[in-house]
Amino acid sequence: MTDAVNGEPTMASLLASLMAGEDLGKERAAWAMDQVMTGEVSPVQLAGFLVALRVKGETVDELGGLVESMLAHATRIDVPGPTVDLVGTGGDRAHTVNISTMAAVVLAGCGIRVVKHGNRAATSSSGAADVLEQLGIRLDHTPERVARIAQEAGITFCFAMVFHPSMRHAGVARKELGVPTAFNFLGPLTNPAQPSATAVGCADARMAPLMAGVFAERGTNALVFRGDEGLDELAATAGTTIWEVRGGEVREQRLDAAADLGMTRIKVEDLRGADAAYNAEVARRVFSGEDQGPVRETVLLNAAAALVADATLEGTASGSLTDRLTAGLTHAARAIDSGATQRALDRWVEAAR
């Protein structure tokens, strides 16, 4: 179904297709996102589109089309050299401490250039932006300055609301819907620096392999993972499914961090956080080496996943997944214990003043 005047799609035609169970494909999904980004779609139309797409079931092509259009409307930056992002989709309602944010600083301590993309809390008690502010990181920088900080400090933060201003047009519909839609999974796919490697925790079992498929089409090396209990983190709480993306191919694997890596079995409650101030204090204890418990071990594991995606440090590029993660754990632990992680945070705070 197309517009009778010019043959172009309309939101009504896309809704009709979705309600009939038809896939939109990449081009029509990208067209729809372009309409959203330019403010041409009403909140009612957008809500209908997102719900219909969710009920039908998103595809890799549709997700890829949404991502391409969102990036076309984003403020982009270029950060030289291999770069890595480490992020969770949120939505697991576990209210854990900021695992991926802490792990990102550990990556910087390992000498990896990190370009983290994130926002304030939406479904959690403390988002990446919230806890970074508590750690002394200023977030009100221009995109050009954000890119320079990456080179000066080895780590930087792309505040989503600054780099994706067109997403404001979707705010009302998303807030009023109050349920997860495809838009909940676009953040990790739309880092404005488009890093060469990414580790992503995804709380949704159906969306995780789709995200991996988008990374594969883009040529980005990635580890996408989901805990059996629904965590968007790697943790020794239960088994985990991992979709490893390398060379444009996706390989699904299983990991039990306790059984396969010799880590101590923990409970989700062991990782529970609170507000940004509390979570920042937890981060300080991890970086200083004071915390030797479940939070530290989980931070190390997630940092190891990003190191495996990056595959530049010794032992992280070849061998079994467990062998590579083991090597990553060693590098991550050394970064904390040597003080390199704390120094990385100090450099970041100074560069971001």
From TrEMBL:
Manner of cofactor binding, per the entry note: Binds 2 magnesium ions per monomer.
Residues annotated for Mg(2+) 1 binding in this entry: 100, 233
Binding site for 5-phospho-alpha-D-ribose 1-diphosphate: 88, 91-92, 96, 98-101, 116-124, 128
EC number(s) per entry: 2.4.2.18
Chain positions recorded as anthranilate 2 binding sites: 174
Keywords attached to this entry: Amino-acid biosynthesis, Aromatic amino acid biosynthesis, Glycosyltransferase, Magnesium, Metal-binding, Transferase, Tryptophan biosynthesis
The keyword Amino-acid biosynthesis is annotated on this UniProt entry: yes
Residues bound to anthranilate 1: 88, 119
One example GO MF annotation: magnesium ion binding
GO cellular component: cytosol
Subunit details: Homodimer.
Family named by the database record: Belongs to the anthranilate phosphoribosyltransferase family. In the C-terminal section; belongs to the anthranilate phosphoribosyltransferase family.
Its biological purpose: Catalyzes the transfer of the phosphoribosyl group of 5-phosphorylribose-1-pyrophosphate (PRPP) to anthranilate to yield N-(5'-phosphoribosyl)-anthranilate (PRA).
Protein name in the entry: Anthranilate phosphoribosyltransferase
Species annotation: Myceligenerans xiligouense
Lineage: Bacteria, Bacillati, Actinomycetota, Actinomycetes, Micrococcales
